[in-house]
Amino acid sequence: MTVWEELKARGLIAQVTDEDEIKEMVNNGKATFYIGFDPTADSLHVGHFMALCLMKRLQMAGNRPIALLGGGTGMIGDPSGRTDMRQMMTKETIQHNIDCFKKQMSRFIDFSDGKALMVNNADWLLNLNYVDLLRDVGAHFSVNRMLTAECYKQRMERGLSFLEFNYMIMQSYDFYMLYQKYGCNMQFGGDDQWSNMLGGTELIRRKLGKDAYAMTITLLLNSEGKKMGKTQSGAVWLDPNKTSPFDFYQYWRNVDDADVIKCMRLLTFLPLEQIDEMAKWEGSQLNKAKEILAYELTNLVHGEEEAKKAQEGARALFSGGADTAHMPSTELTDEDFTEEGTIDLITMLIKTGLVPTRSEGRRAIEQGGVSIDGEKITDIKHTVAKDALAGDGVVLKRGKKKFNRVYAK
């Protein structure tokens, strides 16, 4: 199976500009391609993870990836998939986020010996002269055509700022610069980036008379059509300090039955033959498939040791075992307890992050969704003595899937 055939079989490919040319380059390791990452936070998240996996696959086949960090485009903000304008960030915040991205990307991509490049579009975007840009680049863009782009259409009713309207031009200019500086002949991105990517191929054709190519990858959506990688408390991050390896593992362990095989194909490096066999599994076997998915992805992001710990902790919890060593934990301090040496249950729920507010904690208790060491608690005034939290502490659980080991020294 060629690289291209595998990408298709895994369901990764959404739209392409010229399938025959792209297939030829990718299969023969001739593609120098880029994917852009705007530094909108201090960690990459699951949405980026799919792009990183694609970069890794193509690099393994001899192609050269360029990770483009959006130090310049991050100053504007991508309107794609947004219902409102992004919060504007300072240069210092953007630089801090870029530094965080660099560390995380190196886990996936081999940047040694020119096998891949990491560049920052601030190097050419921030010093542009506005009038020169209008004459040199703006003349090649039709406003009528831009307004038909999906990324702008969905914002027209609520209002699209002129700042954001320029984003397509900036991204197109990136491709144009990367083509000239590094021989970058291809851009990959999420399916919501299609219009911006076509802008780049068109600018290269008009300015240089050369062909460049674009391909979008399938967005990571669940069976209901909603973007994956989001929880009630926010994004699922790749930074272990923002989403612990255990919580990362649990996110994938708890995906819907209808999504597990699709996630296997899109995100893991397991052979397709093995995944096709798992696609025949039913009932309780699907839980085994989810365990495999969770382990494989946690291993990719956090390493084998953390993946094993997360798996052991999850198995202990669901089997009712006593091994709490690898569960997410919260240590309470003396300040958390009253003069009588107790702490109320709602405060415990908030301290552990199992609920965001007291009112939600109260509701969870009243609805019978909270337990301590397997015993359901329905009294909203329930308190726990500090002595009861000594040693290994207790396992505080909300619903079937959220839990935390709480202890005090």
Question: Which SSEs are present, and which pair or pack?
Answer:
Blueprint: H1 3-9, E1 13-16, H2 19-27, E2 32-37, H3 46-60, E3 64-69, H4 91-105, E4 117-120, H5 122-125, H6 130-136, H7 143-147, H8 150-153, H9 162-165, H10 167-182, E5 186-190, H11 194-208, E6 213-217, E7 230-231, E8 234-235, H12 245-253, H13 260-267, H14 272-278, H15 285-302, H16 304-318, E9 329-332, E10 342-344, H17 345-351, H18 358-366, E11 370-372, E12 375-376, E13 383-385, E14 394-398, E15 402-408
Parallel strand pairs: 2-3, 2-5, 3-4, 5-6, 9-15
Antiparallel strand pairs: 1-6, 7-8, 10-13, 11-12, 11-14, 14-15
Helix pairs in contact: 10-11, 12-15, 12-16, 13-15, 15-16, 17-18
Textual characterization of the structure:
Helices cover 43% and strands 15% of the residues. It has 409 residues and is of the alpha/beta class. The termini are far apart.
Main sheet: which strands, in order across? 1-6-5-2-3-4
Strand proportion, as a percent range, falls in: 5-15%
Unreliable spans: none
Outline? globular
Structural class: alpha/beta
DSSP helix fraction: 40-55%
Give the distance, in angstroms, between the N- and C-terminal Cα atoms. Answer: 57 Å
Could you tell me the radius of gyration in angstroms? 24 Å
The beta-strand count equals 15
How many DSSP helices?
18
The largest sheet is: 6 strands, mixed
Q: Give the rounded overall mean pLDDT.
A: 87
